[in-house]
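User: Can you recover a sequence for this backbone? Please restate the input before giving your answer.

Assistant: Of course. Working from this structure:
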């Protein structure tokens, strides 16, 4: 391809890592579209609720200086015209587009949940939750629904801050954890004073303004209810007429390229490779971002794009500021990845300032990790 190549990136973790990789190539102009002027560390939003971290970082720190930031929201992708429509009324033209819109909280479909529960999947939701807690007595009961990584971390963070927390797990505490990792998690939660409810009856059937109803008939008093179970992706791809799966994720091939258009490449939670599924996480996104960039750069260079290979280090959970566990080689991650992920972005920003340092832009990119996650047994470790 001759002349300057315009790449538009829509999204967060995966989008920033893709942008930094792309910005290292001479002749490539990169524009990132983000609805906020600062980068949101989604995996620290539970800390924003208690005030132990603000969960934001300046884009100037995590993104290369040559990357242009447009603070707006993409509303439609015109694949045929290679344009992105913005909520503010403008449009952006592109030669290639990186689709990295991420994910958010899913509608649980439980009566009262949408009306009365709070979420921590967005900074706005975290702020509303913080405001609700600020106007509630410290001794008032708080219920956290869901015991995935977000639920566990949120329950522990609030309990450590002095809140009276009940964690409603559903059938089992930490469903992604192995049994021997659940034991130290349960001990830590007990030490923090969290009441853990699990088993067939611990499924929420209704949420009201001051109670949570369970499937076995129990009624839990709850001044503040926090819903952490389930994810959804934005419907931008579907609204734009691009092929998506049942969960609304952009369907791609193994090079992360949309099956409808080779100029659209996905990175992160909002894309899916059929028969090559990976966990929705920032740990995946910061690998998929450079991989998406590599696909684009190889096409610009007239080379064939390579299939993506993923590597997961494990699942790391922060259980308050003074404790945590690590389960190695399970495709989940949290607290350790908070530091790793931000450092990955900062490192990419520095590299992005050195344009033209890799020839055609395809050498030196992180595109070849081990093909499968490692499979050692999960091992608990203090974090």
């Amino acid at each position: 391809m001759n002349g300057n190549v315009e790449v538009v990136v829509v999204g967060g973790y995966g989008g920033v890592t893709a942008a930094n990789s792309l910005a290292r190539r001479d002749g490539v102009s990169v524009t990132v579209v983000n609805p906020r002027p600062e980068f949101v560390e989604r995996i620290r939003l539970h800390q924003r609720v208690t005030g132990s971290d603000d969960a934001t970082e300046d884009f100037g720190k995590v993104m290369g200086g040559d990357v242009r930031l447009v603070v707006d929201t993409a509303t439609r992708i015109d694949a045929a015209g290679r344009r992105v429509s913005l909520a503010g009324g403008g449009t952006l033209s592109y030669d290639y587009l990186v689709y990295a819109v991420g994910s958010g909280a899913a509608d649980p479909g439980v009566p009262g949940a949408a009306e009365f529960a709070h979420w921590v999947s967005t900074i706005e939701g975290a702020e509303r939750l913080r405001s609700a807690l600020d106007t509630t007595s410290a001794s008032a009961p708080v219920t956290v629904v869901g015991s995935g990584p977000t639920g566990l971390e949120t329950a522990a963070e609030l309990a450590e801050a002095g809140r009276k927390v009940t964690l409603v797990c559903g059938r089992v505490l930490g469903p992604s954890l192995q049994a021997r990792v659940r034991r130290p998690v349960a001990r830590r939660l007990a030490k923090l004073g969290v009441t853990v409810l699990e088993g067939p009856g611990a499924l929420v059937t209704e949420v009201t303004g001051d109670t949570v109803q369970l499937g076995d008939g129990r009624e839990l008093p709850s001044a503040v209810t926090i819903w952490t179970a389930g994810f959804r992706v934005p419907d931008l791809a579907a609204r734009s007429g691009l092929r998506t799966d049942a969960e609304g994720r952009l369907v791609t091939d193994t090079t992360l390229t949309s099956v409808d258009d080779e100029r659209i490449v996905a990175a992160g939670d909002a894309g899916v490779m059929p028969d090559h599924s990976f966990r929705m996480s920032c740990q995946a996104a910061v690998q998929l971002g450079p991989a998406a960039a590599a696909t684009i750069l190889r096409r610009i260079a007239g080379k064939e794009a390579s299939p993506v290979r993923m590597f997961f280090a494990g699942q790391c959970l922060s259980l308050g500021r003074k404790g945590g566990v690590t389960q190695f080689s399970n495709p989940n991650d949290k607290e350790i990845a908070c530091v790793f992920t931000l450092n990955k972005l900062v490192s990419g920003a520095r590299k992005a300032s050195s344009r033209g340092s890799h020839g055609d832009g395809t050498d030196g990119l992180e595109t070849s990790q081990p093909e499968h996650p490692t499979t050692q047994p999960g091992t608990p470790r203090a974090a």
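That completes the design. Residues 5 and 28 are 5 Å apart (CA to CA).
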